[in-house]
C-alpha cells in the first residue's frame, strides 16, 4: 500500500494546478451532487445496486458524496482523511454494497472533473486531471482497504459464532432450530405465511469425485453467495450439511407470491460455477417447499415435509418443468 501511496503523491505542477482550480470546482459543487442524487434514485429502484438501502441510508450516501467532493479538492492530504476513507469502505461493507460501488462513485467524480476540464487549455488540463485522478485512486485504495478489513472482521466473528456455518458464513442448524419457531410465531400473530424450502444439487457428489473436496467447497461458497444475493435481508438462508440448504421466507401472503422470486433464483442458480480460470461446473438444483400455516405442523414437521417435496421433485427431474415443487401438490 505504501508503494502505491508514494506513486500517487502529487508533483509540484499537479499540486499547483489543483490549488488554482479548486475554488472554481468548489463553487460548482452542487452540480455533481445533483447528478449523484439522480444516480442514487436510479440505482435504489428494484434490482438496482442500492435497492437494499433505506431512504435514510440513500440520503446519507448523498451527504457523504458531497463531503468527499470537498475532500478531493483539499490542498493537503491528512491522516484524518485517510482514516475517513477507511471508515467509508467499512460502512459500504456493513450496508452490503458490492466493491463495485467504490469504483462507481469514482467514475461519477471523474466524469464531472472531465466535464469541467474540457474547456481548459492542454497545459492547464493535463496537470489538473493528473492531480484529480491521483486523488481518486488514493481514496479508492483506502476505501477498498476499509472494505477488506470489515470483511475480515466479520469472517473472524463468524468463525467464532456457534450459529454460523464456518465454510459459507450462513446460519447453521442450531440457528435454524432457534429462529424458525420464532418466524412461525410471527406469522400466527400477523396473519401471514412462512415458506420453508429445502434445496440441494441433483449430483453434488460428482464435483467432489471429479475435482476434490476443495473445489466442492468452492461451489458451496458460490451457491451460498447466490442465495444471499437473491433473497431479502429478512429471509433466512441456512446450510444444514454438505449441499443441504434451507430457506425460510416470511411475510408471504399466498403461494403465487413466490413464483417471481423462484424464477429469478433459477436464473441465478443455472449459471455455471467457477472452479478455476479455465474450469466451470454446472449441475441442476432441486427444491421442495411447504407453506405454513397451510401445512399446520411444527418447525421440524415443516422441514420434513419440505424434504419430502424435494425428494418428489428429484424423482421426477427428467419430466419436470420447474426446479421446485410444493408439499401436498
TrEMBL record:
GO molecular function, one term: oxygen binding
SMART domains hit by this protein: GGDEF
Stretches assigned to the GGDEF domain: 192-326
Range of residues in the leader sequence: none
Name of the featured protein: GGDEF domain-containing protein
Amino acid at each position: 500500500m505504501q508503494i502505491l501511496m508514494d506513486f500517487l503523491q502529487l508533483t509540484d505542477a499537479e499540486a499547483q494546478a489543483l490549488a488554482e482550480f479548486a475554488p472554481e470546482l468548489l463553487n460548482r459543487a452542487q452540480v455533481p451532487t445533483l447528478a449523484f442524487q439522480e444516480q442514487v434514485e436510479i440505482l435504489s429502484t428494484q434490482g438496482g445496486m442500492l435497492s437494499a438501502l433505506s431512504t435514510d441510508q440513500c440520503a446519507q450516501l448523498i451527504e457523504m458524496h458531497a463531503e468527499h467532493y470537498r475532500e478531493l479538492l483539499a490542498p493537503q492530504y491528512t491522516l484524518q482523511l485517510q482514516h475517513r476513507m477507511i471508515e467509508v469502505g467499512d460502512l459500504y461493507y456493513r450496508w452490503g454494497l458490492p466493491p463495485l460501488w467504490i469504483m462507481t462513485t469514482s467514475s461519477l467524480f471523474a466524469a464531472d472533473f472531465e466535464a469541467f476540464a474540457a474547456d481548459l487549455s492542454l497545459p492547464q488540463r493535463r496537470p489538473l486531471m493528473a492531480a484529480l485522478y491521483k486523488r481518486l485512486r488514493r481514496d479508492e485504495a483506502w476505501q477498498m482497504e476499509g472494505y477488506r478489513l470489515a470483511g475480515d472482521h466479520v469472517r473472524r466473528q463468524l468463525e467464532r459464532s456457534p450459529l454460523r456455518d464456518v465454510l459459507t458464513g450462513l446460519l447453521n442448524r442450531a440457528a435454524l432450530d432457534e429462529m424458525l419457531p420464532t418466524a412461525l410465531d410471527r406469522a400466527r400473530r400477523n396473519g401471514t405465511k412462512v415458506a420453508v424450502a429445502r434445496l440441494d444439487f441433483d449430483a453434488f457428489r460428482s464435483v467432489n469425485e471429479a475435482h476434490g473436496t476443495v473445489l466442492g467447497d468452492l461451489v458451496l461458497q458460490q451457491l451460498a453467495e447466490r442465495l444471499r444475493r437473491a433473497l431479502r435481508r429478512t429471509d433466512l438462508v441456512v446450510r444444514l450439511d454438505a449441499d443441504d440448504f434451507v430457506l425460510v421466507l416470511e411475510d408471504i401472503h399466498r403461494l403465487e407470491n413466490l413464483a417471481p422470486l423462484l424464477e429469478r433464483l433459477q436464473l441465478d442458480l443455472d449459471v455455471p460455477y467457477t472452479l478455476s480460470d479455465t474450469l466451470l461446473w454446472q449441475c441442476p438444483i432441486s427444491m421442495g417447499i411447504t407453506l405454513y400455516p397451510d401445512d399446520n405442523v411444527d418447525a421440524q414437521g415443516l422441514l420434513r415435509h419440505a424434504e419430502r417435496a424435494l425428494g418428489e421433485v428429484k424423482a421426477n427431474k427428467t419430466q419436470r418443468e420447474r426446479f421446485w415443487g410444493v408439499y401436498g401438490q
